[in-house]
Amino acid sequence: MDSAEYLEVATKLAQQCGQIILEASKTRYTTGNKVYEKFGQQTDLVTETDIKVEELIKSELQKNFPDHMYIGEETKAAGNHYEFTDKPTWIVDPVDGTSNFVQGFPFVAVSIGLYINKEPTVGVVFNPFLNELFTARKGHGAFLNHKTRLPLSHPYPPPALPSSLSQCLVSYECGGIDRSDLTMSKKVTSVHNLLRLPGEVSWSSKKAGSVHGIRNICCASLNICYVAKGCLDIHFSIGCWEWFVNSFHYYSIQLQFLYFL
Questions:
Q1: Cα distances (Å, whole numbers) of residue 220 to 64, 149, 158
Q2: Which residues pair with 133 in a beta bridge?
Q3: String of DSSP letters for 126-194
Q4: What CATH number is attached to the domain comprising 144?
Q5: Which of 141, 157, 173 is a domain's end point?
Q6: 90 falls in which pLDDT band (50, 70, 90)?
Q7: 8 Å CB contact between 20 and 49
Q8: What sections of the chain are H helices per DSSP?
Q9: CB 125 within 8 A of CB 109
C-alpha cells in the first residue's frame, strides 16, 4: 500500500476522534467524563475520552492494516507489553494534552504516526479546538489543513537560522511526573538560563540566553508542529515517552515535519 493511503486513513481517523474530543469537552463540568490518575500520580491524568479514542484508533488501524504493529499511550499505561521493530508500527497519543483537555485549555491534539523500518513515514496531528490539521508524508513535505505548506518542509529551504538564542521564541515542557526538589531545581535552572541576559549564562557562550520568550502549552506534538509552522524556533522538553520520542532521537514522533526536509 502506498504511503498516501496510510496518510488518508490516519487523517480521517484523527478528524473523527477530534469530534469525539470536542463532544466530550462539553461534559467537563459534569460527571460524564471521569478523570483518573495514572500510577497514582496527580500530575499524570487519563480520562474516559483518552481510552475511548485510543480504542477506536487501535481497532480501525488493525482493521485496515492487520499486519501492522501498534504502540499507544493508554495501551502502555494499562500494562500491555510492546516492542518497537522494523515492522510497520503505528504510534499513537489519543489525547495529547490530557490536562489541557480536563481544564478546557484548547491545546489538545490527536497524534498518529507510522514508522516503517523504524523510519517515520506518515504523521498526523489534529487539534479539534483550533481546527489545526498537520499532516506529513515522507518525501512529500508537510501541510497545515491540506493547503498551507509548512515553511520547514521540502522543497522549501528552512528560514535563516537565528544567530543566537536571543532571537528565539522557545517552547518548554518539563514533564509532570517527577516533581522532587532536586529534579525541579534543575528544570527551573534550565529555564532561568534561557531567560538570562546575554553574557550571564555560565554554561555557554555570550550568545546564549535572553530568549524572546518561553511558552508552555503542555502538548508535545503541537509544540513540534509549531516549530515546523515557524511560529516557534525551538522546542525544549525534559521527560518524554515513546509517543513523543522515537527513532529521531530526542523529539516527538511528529518530528517527521522536520525530518522530511
A1: 27, 21, 21
A2: 126
A3: EETTTTEEEEEETTS-EEETTTEE-SSSTTSPPPPPPSSGGG-EEEEE--SS---HHHHHHHHHHHHHH
A4: 3.30.540.10
A5: 157
A6: very high
A7: yes
A8: 3-25, 48-64, 73-77, 98-103, 181-195, 220-229, 256-259
A9: yes
CA distance 55 to 59: 6
* pLDDT tens-place string over residues 161-215: 677 777 888 888 776 667 778 877 877 888 877 887 765 555 555 545 778 888 8
Tens digits of per-residue pLDDT, 97-113? 888 998 899 999 999 99
Shortest CA distance to 165 belongs to which of 226, 214, 224?
A: 214
Residue 191 domain flag: yes
Claim to verify: residue 138 and residue 196 sit in the same structural domain: no
Domain range enclosing 63: 3-157
The answer to whether residue 256 is domain-embedded is no
Buried b or exposed e, range 170-182, using 16+ CB within 10 angstroms: bbbbbbeeeeeee
pLDDT tens-digit map of 139-150: 888 899 998 888
Closest CA to 106 of 126, 91, 136: 126
Here the cell at position 116 is: 516503517
The answer to whether the annotation marks 86 as part of a ligand binding site is no
The pTM of this model reads 0.81
pLDDT in tens, 111-129: 999 999 988 899 999 999 9
The enclosing domain of 208 has a CATH number of 3.40.190.80
d(CA 133, CA 153): 15
Is 233 marked within a binding site? Answer: no
Residue 188 lies in a domain: yes
Cα–Cα distance, 85 to 211 (Å, whole number)? 39
Q: Is 181 known as a binding-site position?
A: no
**Number of structural domains found in the chain:** 2
On whether both 45 and 142 belong to a single domain, the answer is yes
Residue 188 amino acid letter: V
